[in-house]
Design brief:
Elements (H helix, E strand, L loop, with lengths): L13 H42 L10 H4 L13 H5 L9 E6 L8 H13 L4 E6 L9 H9 L3 E5 L2 H5 L5 H6 L8 H17 L1 E4 L3 E3 L9 E4 L5 E8 L4 H12 L11 H7 L4 E2 L36 E3 L2 H4 L11 H9 L1 H6 L5
Parallel strand pairs: 1-2, 1-4, 2-3, 6-8
Antiparallel strand pairs: 4-7, 5-9, 6-7
Helix pairs in contact: 8-9
Length: about 350
């Protein structure tokens, strides 16, 4: 075979060049199209950026409520109650509320009083507990009030301007224009007046400052408690807002007030107006006052028997502070009071001295 008959490569070499040229032109066209699209979208983005940055008003990235944009401040100290408490005393909050009054003119609570308040807040976390002082300036830096405030979100400590509080009340004339302060039991009667005025105006629970609470009280509503099954006490009360019994009580207080008889304007008053809604004495007064020393009796270390008065009916223990206040409580003792305090007011018990 001659060499001219040998075919090397493609019979038409120009085809390869023409194919590469067509492919190159096609790619060139696609690249130009992509650049055109990029240029178009880039120009649109630039226009939007310039408008937002230089022309349009600033728009936040997200909506933040005003109350979240304000500077956070520490909560008000108990010694500086919120303005609404000073002026309007708006205690008509949602949910249950309990009121406790300090009416002796003190600006703080002692260990025993603070223990009583803690036990109320501890066993009733859904109840807003208002610790009210009958003076505006309260020592919020005292160890008891500070401990209560730091450990219990449901405690509110409020100093009250009494003239403002009584203004517009059925007791306003009695408070401002009578000689009740000259009576031998003026502080006790002042306390009676305030519990009735508070519950008639706001409704809720009222408790004395010498009741150690052992269990929740919210199951019980519209009640008084008895001391001995006969005498109705004013130390533990509940009345719904607008309950007529409180209106009767406050009216009787004004009409029949006697400064010379200790219980006339409290327990005896309730006996005059109440015919039902009375809890048995076991609820708050299982230990009658002649036996008050049982709370402070030192028992043998191996004596683990539960006292006969500590039954399932007991909601709180009235410890008769009027006659027991000078009896010492030893922190490391076997006294019932010590055991109750350790279990039912642990935060205050942790700061209590060896003897209180």
């Amino acid at each position: 075979m001659e060499s001219k008959d040998v075919v090397i490569g493609h019979p038409k070499p120009g085809w390869r060049f023409s194919s590469w040229k067509r492919i190159w032109l096609k790619r060139r066209t696609n690249i130009n199209h992509e650049r055109a699209f990029l240029l178009m979208f880039g120009s649109a983005g630039l226009v939007i950026f310039v408008y937002n940055a230089l022309i349009a008003p600033p728009i936040p990235l997200c909506f933040v409520p005003d109350d979240l944009t304000t500077t956070h401040r520490p909560p008000s100290q108990p010694s500086d109650p919120p303005r609404e408490f000073k002026r309007n005393y708006d205690f008509l909050s949602e949910g249950d509320k309990a009121f406790v009054w300090e009416t002796a003119g003190n600006d703080t609570l002692d260990i025993r009083q603070a223990c009583a308040l803690e036990s109320l807040a501890l066993h009733n976390p859904s109840v807003t507990v208002y610790m009210l002082f009958s003076k505006e300036r309260v020592n919020g830096s005292s160890i008891t009030l500070r401990t209560l405030s730091e450990n219990y979100k449901n405690i509110r400590i409020v100093g009250i301007n009494m003239d403002s509080f009584m203004t517009g009340s059925p007791l306003e004339h009695w408070y401002k224009f009578t000689d009740w302060r000259k009576g031998p039991f003026n502080i006790s009667h002042f306390s009676d007046a305030l519990r009735f005025a508070t519950l008639s105006k706001y409704g809720g629970y009222y408790f004395d400052l010498d009741i150690i609470h052992l269990q929740p009280v919210t199951y019980y509503r519209n009640f008084f408690a008895t001391e001995d099954g006969i005498i109705v006490s004013a130390g533990a009360i509940h009345a719904d807002y607008g309950h007529p019994i409180m209106q009767l009580a406050i009216s009787d207080f004004v009409v029949n007030y006697r400064p010379d008889v200790w219980g006339h304007n409290g327990p005896a008053l309730l006996g005059r107006v109440i015919t039902k809604c009375v809890l048995p004495n076991a609820s708050f007064y299982p230990v009658h006052y002649p036996r008050w020393r049982e709370f402070f009796h030192q028992r043998a270390p191996n004596d683990t028997m539960k006292p006969d008065w500590l039954t399932r009916e007991v909601i709180g223990l009235h410890v008769w502070n009027k006659i027991s206040c000078k009896e010492p409580v030893y922190r490391n003792s076997t006294q019932y009071y010590t055991q109750l305090a350790r279990a039912h007011c642990p935060a205050i018990f942790s700061i209590a001295p060896d003897v209180f």
